[in-house]
Every structure is written in C-alpha cells, then in structure tokens.
C-alpha cells in the first residue's frame, strides 16, 4: 500500500516514519467509503483510545479519497479493540457497505492482520520454573478470557523450562496482558505455530536466562573469531551434526535495527520475514530470520556467517533447530531449487513457457505443483463469456507463479473463467462463475505455500463495482 499519497487535514502529533509501528500493532488499516471524511473517523474511533494521527489515502492527482485510511493509536490494545468492535460496522446510517478494519502491516509482518489471526492472540512469557499451568492461568486471567495455557517442559525429565504460552480469545486481551503484566514475565506476542517458532523463542529466552543468572552460554556466540569468512566450509568441521532449518539466529556485538537486518539478509532471495529481539541484559544485537525455503536459509547461513556489518563487527549466523528432519529438508531443497529456477525462467521471460510445456510422452506440464495443501482434482474451466459472479485478488510472495501453474491450481475448485497476472506486480486475479467455488479457493489456498510461493487469496471488488470505476486514460 502506498502511503506516500496519503494526507490528513488534522494537526497535532504525527509520528515519524520510524515510529509508525511503535508500539507494535498500534495502527489500523480501514477500507471505507470514498466519501467518509476524516472527522467521522475521528468521532467513531476516538472512544477506543488516544488517536495520534489519521491518514486518508488520496489520489496524487485528483486528491480524491481512495476509500482507504489508517488510524494510529497510542497503544496496541486500543487499536485491537477498535478492530474487534468496528470491523463489519457501518460508520453512518447513510452507508450501504460496512467497513473493514485490520491491524496494519508493519515491517515485521508481511500483511494486514484480522481478528482471527493467531499471531495477535497468543503471548510467550518467561515464568518461574515452579509455576503450574493453573498458576499461569491465574496470573493472566485478569486481562481477559483465556483459551488455553501451556508450559514448555523438558521432553526427557518433564521439568519446566520456565517458559510458557497464553492464548486469549481476543487480540485486545493479549495486547493488554503484554502492556500491563509484570515486566519480569517479558511477555511478547508468540509467532503462529505453523512458523515453527517455539524453538527460536525458547532459545532466545534460554540464552537470556543464562546471561541473567551469570552462567556461560551453552555455545560460543562468536565461534568465527579469528577465522576467515569461509572457514565454515572446512572439510573437518562438524557441519554434519548441525541442525538445518529455514530459520536462522543472528547475533552481533553491535545492536542493529530491523531495517538493517532485513537489508543484509534480503540479499539472498526468498526472505520471508525478520525480527529483532531486544535483550535488556546485554548490548548484543539478537535477531531471527526466516526464509520460504531451506535452500535460501543454507545459502544465507554460509554466505553471511562472519560477514562484517558494520565494518569491524562480524555477525554470527546459525540454524535454529525446529525439529525438522535434515535429510527431508535437503531433499526438498533440491526440489525447490529446480522449481524456483523454472518459475524464475517463466516470470523473467514469458516466451520460455513454451519450452517448459514440452513434457514427456505423458504430456505433463512443468513445473509440477509442490505443496502440503490437499487440492481437489482438476475441473474444466467455464466458457469465457460466462458472467463473473466473484473475483479473487491474489498476492504472491516472493514472486508470481507461472500462469499455467496458477490456472491449474485455481481451476480445481470449478467454474473458473479466467486467471491472470498484473504485469510487473506480484499480484493477480481469478474470475469465477460461482461464489461457492471462489470461497472454496479462498478457504483452501489463503496463506498457503505452493512451489515455494506463499499465496494470499481474498475477495476483490465485485464485477458491478469494477464496471462503475473510471477507466484510466493513460
């Protein structure tokens, strides 16, 4: 979303670019009527807390509202409560369409997040090892309704590791717990389970606990001292014993920002996200980096471990053990490398599609669909002249899928009329002749990874609304 074209007529405090996401998740993203003034937004959203600023996104040339706005609150819990209570509501009696409210995307999150997003409701805490789950629930229930509590235990001894999770029913409750609980709990939002994040969070807090108690870390955080940049390729090293995963731990003697961390690791294609983790007990910089595929993670680890940033300061990069089978990961890595190469060929040179479609005697198309998603069997497309009942908007990360693969995926839900890509953008559209088929596609594909590409699939403007839009003349 281009926020450069936004404007707000109100004065008062306006946070700078670097503080837009301070505190995290304190900004909401609104889809509203083009005729909704800023005064109405301020009136309807001020009951939820202190508003620091309002941006109404406008066309750079006509200055007309684009029907999109951002509201920045002083606290995360205020923004979350505004999302919970205002999503799907009408701002005024004259409005015919309800508004949509999401937590706005930040540099650490790749997309806007809604009320049902697990990332906003589960917190990760440091607790005394004597705590039971009942103790944990008793301590945190004051902030809202708890869905479950769990304590991380040693798999062998069953002893608590002094770490736990609390899952609330609402994002605002989790935000209030983080804002108001005792600082000794060091509460943060936990990452979704499907990101295999527990090991990184445990590793981070375990290291923090060791430094707090004055113990030596289990491993040397700077094993690359007095070594060359490529010493990790030594044939006599113990690489074979090292865990391999898509997640990397980054340590530096000099603190770094999330933007700096991103700029370093985005050199390697396939970066999914990065996160800086603050350690109040040391001046070291700590971060977690995750790639979409293991091939990118392996390359980044051996390319950037020992890299000097800033000059004179070497950063340490190591795999975070997420319990994955190394053999399976390496096998997938080889497959993903081939699939990514083929996808890159198609995207950079569409004429190569003919080459890729020269299959063997079976006539199969390449690249094949590789995913953990259970897809329906292929179905015939609807005739091109069929009326469009539903349009889907598709976002690709890190790059679009080839058009033939995309069509193969979306036709499996039946009644597909057309699927196409927007030239030069990581987005596309799918047109369906049946709403049920379109909804099935959203339910099955949204947030899933196919051929190493993560998809976001959501409803686009209806055909009627699209036909009423002014056509561009340039």
Automatic annotation (TrEMBL):
- Boundaries of every RRM domain copy: 26-106, 121-195, 390-462
Native organism: Balaenoptera acutorostrata (Common minke whale)
Q: What does this protein do?
A: RNA-binding protein with binding specificity for poly(C). May play an important role in neural development.
Q: List the protein's name.
A: RNA-binding protein 45
Sorted alphabetically, the Gene Ontology BP terms of this entry are: cell differentiation; nervous system development
Q: Which UniProt keywords apply?
A: Cytoplasm, Developmental protein, Differentiation, Isopeptide bond, Neurogenesis, Nucleus, Phosphoprotein, Repeat, RNA-binding, Ubl conjugation
Please provide, in alphabetical order, the Gene Ontology terms of the cellular component aspect for this entry.
cytoplasm; nucleus
A GO term, aspect molecular function:
RNA binding
The organism's place on the tree of life at top rank? Eukaryota
Compartments it resides in: Cytoplasm; Nucleus
Per the record, a Pfam family?
A: RRM_1
CDD domains, per the entry: RRM1_RBM45, RRM2_RBM45, RRM3_RBM45, RRM4_RBM45
């Amino acid at each position: 979303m281009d926020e450069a074209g936004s404007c707000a007529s109100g004065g008062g405090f306006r946070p700078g670019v670097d503080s837009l996401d301070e505190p995290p998740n304190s900004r909401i993203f609104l889809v509203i009527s083009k005729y909704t003034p800023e005064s109405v937004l301020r009136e309807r959203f001020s009951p939820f807390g202190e508003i620091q600023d309002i941006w109404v996104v406008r066309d750079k040339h006509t200055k007309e509202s684009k029907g999109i706005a951002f509201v920045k609150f002083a606290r995360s819990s205020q923004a979350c409560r505004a999302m919970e209570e205002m999503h799907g509501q009408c701002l005024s009696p004259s409005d015919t369409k309800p508004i949509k409210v999401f937590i706005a995307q930040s540099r650490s999150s790749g997309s806007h997040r809604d009320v049902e997003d697990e990332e906003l409701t589960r917190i990760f805490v440091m607790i005394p090892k004597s705590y039971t789950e009942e103790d944990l629930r008793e301590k945190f229930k004051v902030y809202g309704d708890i869905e479950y509590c769990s304590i991380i235990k040693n798999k062998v001894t069953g002893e608590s590791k002094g770490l736990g999770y609390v899952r609330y029913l609402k994002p605002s409750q989790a935000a209030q717990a983080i804002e108001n609980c005792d600082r000794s709990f060091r509460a943060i939002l936990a990452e979704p389970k499907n990101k295999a994040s527990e090991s990184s969070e445990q590793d981070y807090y375990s290291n923090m606990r060791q430094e707090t108690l004055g113990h030596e870390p289990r491993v040397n955080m700077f094993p690359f001292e007095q070594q060359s940049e490529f010493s990790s390729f030594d044939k006599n090293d113990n690489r074979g014993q090292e865990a391999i995963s898509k997640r990397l731990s980054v340590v530096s003697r000099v603190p770094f920002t999330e933007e700096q961390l991103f700029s370093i690791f985005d050199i390697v294609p396939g970066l999914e996200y990065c996160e800086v983790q603050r350690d109040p007990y040391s001046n070291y910089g700590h971060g977690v980096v995750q790639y979409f595929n293991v091939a990118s993670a392996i390359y980044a680890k051996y390319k950037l471990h020992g890299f000097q940033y800033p000059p004179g300061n070497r950063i340490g990069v190591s795999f975070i053990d997420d319990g994955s089978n190394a053999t399976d990961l390496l096998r997938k890595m080889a497959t993903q490398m081939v699939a990514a190469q083929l996808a890159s060929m198609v995207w950079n040179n569409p004429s190569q599609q003919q080459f890729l479609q020269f299959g063997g005697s079976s006539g199969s198309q390449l690249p094949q669909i590789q995913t953990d998603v259970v897809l329906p069997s292929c179905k015939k497309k609807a005739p091109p002249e069929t009326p469009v009942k539903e349009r889907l908007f598709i976002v690709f990360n890190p790059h679009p899928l080839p058009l033939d693969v995309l069509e193969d995926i979306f036709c499996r839900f039946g009644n597909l009329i057309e699927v196409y890509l927007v030239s030069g953008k990581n987005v596309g559209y799918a047109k369906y002749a049946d709403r049920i088929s379109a909804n099935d596609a959203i339910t099955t594909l949204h947030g899933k990874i196919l051929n190493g590409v993560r998809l976001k699939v959501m409803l686009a403007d209806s055909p009627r609304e699209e036909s009423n839009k002014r056509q561009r003349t340039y």
